[in-house]
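Q: My labmate handed me this sequence with no annotations at all. I'd like to see what the chain might look like in three dimensions before we decide whether it's worth expressing. Could you predict it?
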Amino acid sequence: MALLLLIVAADSVPAMGSAQPSSVPQRAQLIGDLGTNLGPTRVPRVSFLAQLHSVDYPSCLESWAASAGLDVRWSRGESWVSISGPPTAVDRAFGVSIDAYRDAGGQVGWVANRPARVPASACGEVSGIGDIHSFVRPTALGDMTLGASSPGLSPAQLMHAYDATPLASRGLAGQGQTVVFFEGDAYSSSDLKAFASSIHHSLNLVVPLGNLGSDEKESTMDIETVHEIAPSAKLVDINLLSSRFKDTSTAGTFEAAFAFARRHWPGAIWSISLGICEHDANIFNRTDLSIMNEAISTAEVGGTTVFAASGDTGGLDCMPPNDAGRSPVGSWEGVLVPASLPAVTAVGGTTLSTTTTGAYLGETTWTEPLLLQGSGGGLSRVFARPTWQTGPGTGGALDGSEMRQVPDIAADADPATGNDIIVDRSVNTGGGTSLSTPIWAGFTTLIDQYLGTQGGHAVGFFNPELYRLAETSPPYRPLHDIRVDGNDFYPATPGYDMVTGLGSPDVWNLARDLALAER
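A: Here is what I predict for the chain of 519 residues:
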């Protein structure tokens, strides 16, 4: 899926927790990439993010914004705000000029011509301003095989392969659980109905913002994958193309969507099969990424677990959309947002081998280098390695900079070994880290439900517990360690690796280990 519009960032993105700044071009060098300048934008309002020094009520900022003709959205306990207003008011208040541009594909967007200055009249409450630009559509990370000659995994085989059948045999099917999808395309209603009929279980799907955009099969695969694992769970589709997020920056759109999900479905499991190159100075700056991470952490306080796909191009996940077909270059190496955010559990991909009944035989990394496909993974250029990311395989010679390593875990992503889904009114095979991500989301609904029957609480932020289990010797083996193959930059190794993370789940064992840890 191509990005809709190339826009430019407000400033460079230095590594958080590192003294080494990221060397990225400044806006003046990139302004020619936007296309034709159409003059001052005519959109009625624009919206972007700002970081605060504290979580206290920003009374001075609010007062200053009102006098400048701007609005501030702040919620109790948050160290950030969303600022919106007419472009001319933003221009005056932040010392920028917001112009409209038309790219070569005819798409029109808006962008500020220089980094926004922190307003002195805000009484020192603001520490940084996010990038001021129009929304850039993230890349979808599905890689399904249409018209596959060999059948994919049935729901029963997928459950058997990852040892989730013991939970299903106890009557656990996601009752009382909610999974929220963040999508950038439309799903096919007819395909979802056909799939629900094929597994003999109706679909409980909530679409609060509309089924928007073209049907590009991503949303359909995400929803069907979780539905086959947890058929009784409530599924919520939040579409980032909604008018609710109109004329909001990319980070601002994600933050607003996260806030919407947190308010309406607290404690839900989130599945995000979208991504944008983390160090792309055309889209994010340091403030944007920090706020996105904090927004997710805020949701996790309420019991939410967040999974995001690590990417489908074998570590070349910063390949520009217009460079497809070219020989790879080193600048394409990188990790994706939201997967690289430390508050997110990033999901890589494997190639799964099973018996005809679905019994687990083994896994290798999903890698197809000649096709520029495979499990994404690598080092963040922005976030320092979190304190919980420890254990065999982490750090070492491949991570001398001590940065956040991606992914954290993995599951089947190979379209040659994926699950049966219905798209285009026929049975096809799912794949990509857009498959492995909802696989983990679906299994976590069953794990949360099981923990509830044992008197425990929902998993919530998963990473500290996953690394603890991998570093110790729990009673049951919770993860399959993937040790074969790699991606374009990193090998699969014993313990953690930057292709499949800690490995894929043994769901029943993982559920029992977590239950024992709470006693």
